[in-house]
Design brief:
Blueprint lengths: L4 E4 L2 E5 L10 E4 L2 H9 L6 H18 L5 H16 L6 H17 L4 H30 L7 E5 L14 H10 L4 E6 L6 H13 L3 E4 L4 H6 L5 E4 L3 E3 L4 E4 L2 H10 L4 E4 L5 E2 L16 H4 E2 L2 E2 L12 E4 L6 E4 L2 E3 L3 H9 L1
Parallel strand pairs: 4-5, 4-7, 5-6, 7-10, 8-11, 10-15
Antiparallel strand pairs: 1-2, 2-3, 8-9, 9-14, 12-13, 15-16
Helix pairs in contact: 1-2, 2-3, 2-4, 2-5, 4-5, 5-6
């Protein structure tokens, strides 16, 4: 199993995804501010992984806080949570994890500082374990949709690297392979951060699952030729009506899939569903550094002064989504009703 993130006595250990696939470097972060910066700079990325990282960052911050009174810890805890919450705005798992840690803090507050510290560490470890378990359940449920000898297109990276382990979209693919199905994966390279060509292909090659890298603007070509049987992607936030925020370019893939009568599936845990927002227009889209577009791995590919827009995500309207695979079941249209049923 790929160890995306781990808790150790020395701190929070993460595989630095910025360096893959050329280098496998694990970094240890001993301060919560470092964990926040690792999330912000995409040392770790993917909605479920970000949630686990935020929980561990909070636990680390409280563990290392020098205060010894509840009142002082209250103030420190608020700052720690605000720091983690300010890292990336789109992935709802980040805020779900922070709220979960706040609930643990509130329940444990009367027991004292030491009890709070231990409870937060225990909760972050539970979230890590539960994420892997939910991914495996998603895989078990979702692999039933994958036909034998399927040619599958995926966009970005929704694998072990985007989670605590196993993966969401790639978890479904892994489960299909484990069930004896033959698959061929096409991985969009996913500009500008190249999560598909750098990360998805790396993961699948490690597992011995056949993968072909294509540029983002090749997807329609292969669909029209009849070489794609289905599309499966992850998600960073899902609205109550089934609108899906995912890595930029997902919307284009979904439109192409609809045009070519190819099923378009989304795999995400129920923690990625945000029932508080009615549709995707309420999802805040993160804008990232223009230099991520101007450069590839630090090498300039445009004029230095080139004007750039760099939204990290887009929103796919629910009408393009064939099904949403979660750890509690598979939601199908009409999504307002099926999603509500999953959350009961």
């Amino acid at each position: 199993m790929i160890h995306t993130i781990e808790w150790k006595d020395s701190g929070v250990v993460m595989l630095d995804q910025r360096l893959l696939p050329r280098q496998e470097v694990y970094r240890t972060y001993s301060r919560y501010q470092e964990v926040a910066e690792a999330i912000r700079t995409m040392v770790i990325r993917g909605a479920p992984a970000i949630g686990v990282a935020a929980a561990m960052g909070i636990a680390l911050g409280v563990k290392n806080s020098p205060v010894d009174s509840i009142e002082d810890l209250d103030a420190a805890f608020a700052i720690i949570c605000d720091t983690l919450a300010g890292t990336r705005p789109t992935a709802v798992n980040l805020f779900w994890a922070i709220e979960r840690m706040k609930s643990v803090y509130a329940r444990t507050r009367e027991k004292g500082v030491d009890a709070i510290r231990q409870a937060l560490i225990t909760e972050s470890l539970a979230m890590h374990r539960q994420d892997i378990e939910s991914n495996m359940e998603m895989g078990r449920l979702g692999q039933e949709l994958i036909p034998a000898n399927a040619r599958i297109l995926t966009h970005c990276n929704a694998g072990a690297l985007a989670t605590a382990g196993y993966g969401t979209a790639l978890g479904v693919i892994r489960a299909a392979v484990n069930a004896g199905k033959q698959v061929q994966v096409f991985a969009d390279e996913t500009r500008p951060f190249l999560q598909g060509s750098r990360l998805t292909a790396w993961e699948l090659n490690k597992d011995g699952i056949p993968v072909t890298i294509i540029t983002d603007n090749m997807a329609g070509h292969f669909m029209k030729k009849g070489e794609i049987d289905c599309v499966i992607v992850g998600a960073d936030r899902i609205a109550a009506n089934g609108d899906v925020a995912n890595k930029i370019g997902t919307y284009s893939v979904a439109v192409l899939a609809k045009e070519n009568r190819i099923p378009f599936w989304v795999a995400a845990p129920v923690s990625t569903i945000d029932p508080k927002i009615p549709d995707g227009s309420f999802i805040k889209i993160e804008e990232r550094d223009p230099d991520e577009v101007r450069k590839i791995q630090g090498i300039p590919i445009t004029q230095d002064e080139a004007v750039v827009e760099n939204p990290a995500f887009d929103v796919t309207p629910h009408r393009y989504v064939s099904a949403i695979i979660t750890d509690r079941g598979i939601a199908r249209p009409p999504f307002t009703e099926s999603i509500r049923a999953l959350l009961l």
